[in-house]
Design a protein that fits this description.
With 145 residues, the protein is mainly alpha-helical. The strands form 2 sheets. It has a two-stranded antiparallel sheet with strand order 1-2. α2 packs across α3. Keywords: Cell membrane, Ion channel, Ion transport, Membrane, Transmembrane, Transmembrane helix, Transport.
Amino acid sequence: MKKFFSEFKEFIMRGNVLDLAVGVIIGAAFQAIVTSLTSDIISPILGIFGGVNFDQFQVTINGATIMYGKFITAVINFLIMAFVIFLIVKLVNKVMSLGKKTEPEEAPTTKKCPFCFSDIDIKATKCPHCTGDIIDLTEKTDDKK
């Protein structure tokens, strides 16, 4: 039983589990903010132009009331949350890329033989595989200039 709790503690203390827990808690709090924004600000403003709040849109069929306005509000909530999360991820990616140093690309050390397509040393003038004479194309094009 002690080994079980030890393994459980190790599992919980891993960084990604804690990060996930923090993300879920912050996400739930953020959802309350977005829901309030949609219900208390956006829906009434849209209601000014439509004459009624989205939450009040409903239709009754055979005694069953379908409150499609609440569904519209939920879709707006989702779109706002998705957009804000997109902006946050984009911002975090930009901040993370600022700290990274780009390594200069190393000069190639090999080239392809034009006859047998084997990799050979960049300075080679004769292919060790097919014994073909390697013409340095950069020198040839420089002569034409």
